[in-house]
UniProtKB/TrEMBL annotation:
SUPFAM superfamilies: 6-phosphogluconate dehydrogenase C-terminal domain-like, NAD(P)-binding Rossmann-fold domains. Pfam families: 3HCDH, 3HCDH_N. GO terms for molecular function: 3-hydroxybutyryl-CoA dehydrogenase activity; NAD+ binding. It is an enzyme of class 1 (oxidoreductase). Belongs to the 3-hydroxyacyl-CoA dehydrogenase family. Gene3D superfamilies: N-(1-d-carboxylethyl)-l-norvaline Dehydrogenase, domain 2 (1.10.1040.10), NAD(P)-binding Rossmann-like Domain (3.40.50.720). One of its GO terms (biological process) is fatty acid metabolic process. Residues 3-182 form the 3-hydroxyacyl-CoA dehydrogenase NAD binding domain. It comes from Rasiella rasia. This is 3-hydroxybutyryl-CoA dehydrogenase. Residues 185-281 form the 3-hydroxyacyl-CoA dehydrogenase C-terminal domain. The lineage of its organism: Bacteria, Pseudomonadati, Bacteroidota, Flavobacteriia, Flavobacteriales. Keywords: NAD, Oxidoreductase.
Length: 295
């Protein structure tokens, strides 16, 4: 299983591709947009340059990592020889179901299909295929090349063999796999998103300002990043999607997204990706903030 296809060249997708390629897997990075692929590869190269500058890898290792990645705009061509597919597309149920239905058609019969979804039911995704026993959740954390955790989510029909294989691959990547049951939000986001949502509610209710809320959580709770800044890096649209999945899944009002979050997303204020969220991100500031995550 040395051929790995990664679907989606965005923040998570290019990070996952980078991580596999650095461990000498042959990676097929797939996206519908060539511009997105070019941007994703530029991000990988930039992050590798930082690692070279910090003497974590050599220039030779950087070049080998890049040479291990091939890009495709065709899903069918990109997954033709994949032993493992990791889907990292937008957190949208209908899109993921469509992708997995297509993967089931295009991939070899023994290909494991994994989703990097941060909240959507693996059982539901698996039901779109004829191989539910080979569908699993592989939820990486951002930034993927740095963060150690991988949540491994077994759907209702996921086999133990599939789980064991994916857990072993995660360890080969230098990650720590943690088995999680298939409920909305899993563990990471079931705990994280209500905290972020409550921080937004605290701002919405006028208890304190953005920097004050983040400072309290950083200095008082030893968080490396305040919840509002973290929301900006995750993407406010992604936070909203995850909260909606949990709210719809549990029918519990504690997961209902704050009106301020809803309005900001509708206004196009999505955080770092849009240049503005709870903080303002000029190009220089954006580069500075992203760089701090790779220290």
């Amino acid at each position: 299983m040395k051929n790995v296809a990664v679907i989606g060249a965005g923040t998570m997708g290019n990070g996952i591709a980078h991580t596999f390629a650095q461990k000498d897997y042959k990676v097929q990075l797939i996206d519908v947009s060539q511009a997105s692929l070019d941007k994703g590869m530029a991000t990988i190269a930039k992050n590798l340059d930082r690692m070279v500058a910090k003497e974590r890898i050599t220039e030779e290792e950087k070049q080998r990592t890049l040479s291990n990645i091939t890009t495709y705009t065709s899903l069918e061509e990109g997954v033709e020889y994949a032993g493992l597919v990791v889907e990292a597309a937008t957190e949208n149920v209908d899109l993921k179901l469509k992708i997995f239905k297509d993967l089931d058609t295009f991939c070899p019969d023994d290909t494991i299909l994994a989703s990097n979804t941060s909240s959507i039911s693996i059982t539901q995704i698996a039901a779109a295929t004829s191989r539910p026993e080979m569908v699993i959740g592989m939820h990486f954390m951002n930034p993927v090349p740095i963060m150690k955790l991988v949540e491994i989510i077994k759907g209702y029909s996921t086999s133990q063999e599939t789980y064991s294989t994916v857990a072993e691959i995660s360890e080969k990547l230098g990650k720590i796999p943690v088995e999680v049951n298939d409920y909305p939000g899993f563990v990471a986001n079931r705990i994280l998103m209500p905290m972020i949502n409550e921080a937004i509610e605290t701002l919405y209710n006028g208890v304190a300002g953005v920097e004050e809320i983040d400072t309290v959580m950083k200095l008082g709770m030893a968080h490396p990043m305040g919840p509002l800044q973290l929301a900006d890096f995750i993407g406010l649209d992604v936070c909203l999607s995850i909260l909606n999945v949990m709210y719809n899944g549990f029918k519990n009002p504690k997961y209902a997204p704050c009106p301020l979050l809803v309005n900001m997303v509708m206004a196009g204020k999505k955080g770092v990706k849009s240049g503005e969220g709870f903080y303002d991100y000029s190009e220089s500031r954006k580069a500075e903030n992203v760089a701090t995550m790779f220290k």
